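Materials and Methods. Structural model of Mediator of RNA polymerase II transcription subunit 11. The 115-residue sequence of Mediator of RNA polymerase II transcription subunit 11 from Brassica carinata was retrieved and submitted for structure prediction as follows.
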Amino acid sequence: MDPQTQNTSLQRLQNVERRVVRVLDIAGGVMEELASPSGPRKDFVNSHCREFMQSIKDIQVTLREEIKSACEYRPFEKCDYNSRIANEICFQKLEYVLSQLHDLKKTVDRYPSSD
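The predicted structure was written out as C-alpha cells:
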C-alpha cells in the first residue's frame, strides 16, 4: 500500500471513529429521553433512532470498503477470507460429486453383471 493510499485510509478510519463517537452520543441521548420523568418524546426518539441506524449502516459500509481495500493491497497478510470461502465451496462441490458417484455405484450394483 503506497503512503498516499495509507494516509487516506487512515483518514477514513479516523472519520469512522468520529462517527462511532457520534453514534454513542445519539444512543445516550435516546437513553436519557427514555428515562425522562415526563416520558419520552416520540418524535425525538424516532428521529434519533433513524439517525442511529443510518450512521451504523454508513460505518459498516466504510469499514467493509476499508477491509476490502486492505485485502486487495495485502492479499497474503492475514486476509485469507476469499481463499477460505473458495476452498469451502470446492469442498462442498467435491462432497456432492462423491455422493452422486456413490449413488451411481449403488444403481450399477443393482443390475447383474454381463460377464
